Amino acid sequence: MSNMAFGIWSRWCNTSDEKPTNLMEMITSLVAVFAVILFLWNLKSWRKIVPPLPPGPRGLPIIGYLPFLGTHLRVYGPIYKLWLGNKLCVVVSSPSLAKELVRDQDIIFANRDLITVISDGNDTAYIPYGPEWRKL
Predict the structure, then answer these.
(1) C-beta of residue 31 within 8 angstroms of C-beta of residue 17
(2) pLDDT of 38-82, one tens digit each?
(3) Are 105 and 111 in contact (CB under 8 A)?
(4) Which of 2, 48, 67, 83 is the most buried (most CB within 10 A)?
(5) Rounded distance, CA 91 to CA 84, Å?
(6) Measured between alpha carbons, how far is 17 from 118 in angstroms, rounded to an integer?
(7) DSSP 76-118
(8) Cα–chain center distance at 57
(9) With the C-alpha atoms ordered 100, 102, 106, 112, is the resulting torsion angle positive or negative?
(10) Can you tell me the distance from the alpha carbon of 82 to that of 54, in angstroms, rounded to the nearest whole number?
(11) In angstroms, rounded to a whole number, what is the distance separating the alpha carbons of residues 20 and 130?
(12) How many secondary structure helices (H) and strands (E) does the chain include?
């Protein structure tokens, strides 16, 4: 094992009596090491970007959240998450919290889901909040 490590080290430092290392081999090794470091860095930073979701009930296989839409949701407070099909929905059930979201935080929640199949996502109902939306 130590002979192999010494052999690799000697190739990089060119301390042995062998022919000098191939420049392409050296560049390929450096690019591979750099790519692995970059991948790990992006993986680490990606995990930090995803914010935690509010709590919510666990859905059942076929009927989903239907049994939990009644009185059981009081356990999770005024804001909770539900999966409706493959769409994640955050439900706000408190009038005061809904008022704060609609009035005070309206710019943050003004965007709509883009449906790219219909008009490349530029339909009037699905245009994101911005300069084009203000022109309407």
Answers:
(1) no
(2) 888 887 766 666 677 777 777 777 777 777 676 666 777 888 887
(3) no
(4) 83
(5) 11
(6) 68
(7) G-SEEEEEETTEEEEEE--HHHHHIIIIITTTTT------TTT
(8) 22
(9) positive
(10) 10
(11) 59
(12) 4, 2
